[in-house]
Design goal:
Blueprint lengths: L17 E2 L3 H7 L8 E9 L6 H16 L3 E7 L6 H8 L6 E5 L6 H10 L3 E6 L10 H10 L4 E5 L6 E2 L4 H17 L1 H4 L10 E4 H4 L3 E2 L6 H8 L5 E5 L1 E2 L11 H17 L11 H28 L4 H24 L1 H4 L5 H33 L5 H24 L7
Parallel strand pairs: 2-3, 2-5, 3-4, 6-10, 7-11
Antiparallel strand pairs: 1-9, 5-8, 6-8
Helix pairs in contact: 6-10, 9-10, 11-12, 12-14, 14-15
The structure holds guanosine-5'-diphosphate-alpha-D-mannose and manganese (II) ion (MN).
Length: about 425
């Protein structure tokens, strides 16, 4: 089908540094794109989504016309897809004038594509959604409501009440959680601010990310917004990540390498210093006291099993450690993180927390043994074994606390 002439060329794609203009700068920048400020600009990054674009645009328009008809735009940013997604999208612009299409031929990459879309945008709220309908469009209304109520950032999260993933393989779940754990260790005050830092589905106030030169890498555009934006209040909305019906995921190992690279880049150049993330001291003190009670339980059980019942030392220690972990879980769930546990009731949720707590504490046990050996042999010159153990325990307590705070008893600044 030959396209009418006015549809054959997409809009020119913004070039140069990845910087978002403020509304004021947009006004002075002038140009036909900046005639009117809209409420929402939704960037839709695409690569080989030719079969998904039409159903997605139809669902988005039906939905958004209910609440902000004529006051939003959908900006498809296609990286010159071999399946000509950009051309399929252009053909839709006659039916949907709120649809804009950018075709990038010199650049590639999901995060940068989103930012190019936001640079071409005229909305006060800048959003991003995947083109493959794995992000249910209906959640947009809740994200929109959160920003309208003043949140700086509204994230669709798989890891809060109402969230989840459909049939994700165990390996994909482990990889996603593993990536989150690495992020918590490398960039705790950025990655730790939301329950689903891997989310590619969110909306942010333009004023919160206008100004800094953005420098993303790979897939995780939310990291860039959290790491360089001026984000104070964050809202989270639960959503279930859907099964993809058409096309295939473009996630490869390269995205995981890019992710680590992106974390390190943000650690150096992000806005870490400005982030006012108060360390939850009171919770940490309670966690430490519970840990102390665990030491007592561990010692008593070890004595009963090894000295009284005559069980071999290693087996006694393993059983004693496990009983101590259970003891600590019960106290932490009922006291240290009571406010969070109360939001996640039910034996299934509690069992999930126990398993995560157990895994983190066992990881902590391994780390404890490693730290003990390093400190005893390399730092203390094979003297003061018990002092080395105390230092190792102190370090591991931070590890256990932080990971449990962020993974087992997720405390998010949900509005
Ligand atoms: N322009 C452009 N350039 N778009 C891309 C590129 C690219 O290089 N790579 C992927 N996309 C588009 C896809 O067409 C799709 O619309 C969206 O980005 C997500 O790509 P998928 O390959 O489907 O990613 P996923 O489903 O495995 O993971 C998505 O969801 C996760 C959970 O929200 C991504 O958004 C992840 O970043 C996110 O963590
Ligand atoms: Mn997808």
């Amino acid at each position: 089908m030959v396209l009418p002439p006015q549809l054959q060329i997409p809009e020119p794609t913004p070039q140069g540094s990845l910087q978002i203009l403020s509304l004021a700068e947009m006004g002075t920048a002038g140009g036909e794109n900046h005639a009117q400020t809209l409420t929402l600009s939704l960037a839709i990054p695409t690569y080989n989504e030719g079969k998904n674009i039409k159903p997605l645009v139809e669902r988005l328009v039906t939905l958004l016309d209910q609440v902000i008809a004529g006051d939003y735009e959908l900006i498809i940013v296609d990286d010159d897809s071999p399946d000509l997604t950009w051309q399929t999208a252009l053909a839709l612009t006659t039916t949907y004038p709120q649809l804009r299409v950018l075709r990038r031929q010199q650049e590639r990459g999901l995060s940068a594509a989103v930012i190019r879309g936001w640079q071409a945008a005229t909305g006060r709220f800048l959003g991003v959604i995947d083109a493959d309908l794995q992000h249910p469009p209906e959640v947009l209304l809740e994200l929109l409501a959160a920003l309208t109520q003043g949140a700086d950032l509204a994230v669709a999260s798989r890891h809060v009440t109402g969230g989840g993933v459909s049939e994700w393989s165990l390996i994909r779940r482990v990889l996603s959680r593993g990536a989150q754990t690495v992020g918590l260790l490398l960039l705790p005050r950025v990655v730790g601010r939301v329950s689903d830092p891997m989310s590619g589905y969110f909306m942010v106030q333009r004023r919160a990310i206008a100004g800094p030169i953005l420098n993303p890498k790979g897939y995780k555009i939310l990291l860039e917004v959290l790491g360089r934006g001026d984000i104070d209040t964050i809202a989270e909305v639960g959503y279930v990540f859907q099964e993809r019906l058409e096309g295939a995921s473009k996630v490869t190992w390269r995205q995981y390498i890019d992710y680590i690279h992106h974390l390190l880049r943000l650690r150096v150049g992000g806005r870490l210093s400005q982030l006012h993330q108060r360390f939850p001291l009171q919770r940490f003190v309670r966690f430490g006291l519970v840990g102390l009670s665990g030491v007592v339980v561990d010692m008593v059980i070890l004595y009963l099993l090894h000295s009284t019942l005559g069980l071999p030392l290693t087996r006694s220690k393993i059983l004693a450690a496990e009983v101590a972990i259970l003891n600590n879980f019960i106290w932490n769930d009922a006291w240290t993180f009571a406010d969070v546990s109360l939001m996640q009731q039910g034996w299934r949720a509690r069992l999930k927390r126990l398993l995560k707590f157990n895994a983190i504490c066992l990881g902590g046990l391994v780390l404890n043994v490693l730290m003990l050996n390093v400190i005893y042999n390399l730092v203390f010159g094979q003297r003061w074994a018990y002092a080395a153990n105390l230092v190792a325990i102190a370090i591991v307590t931070f590890w256990n606390f932080w990971l449990n705070l962020k993974l087992s008893w997720r405390v998010t600044q949900t509005k």
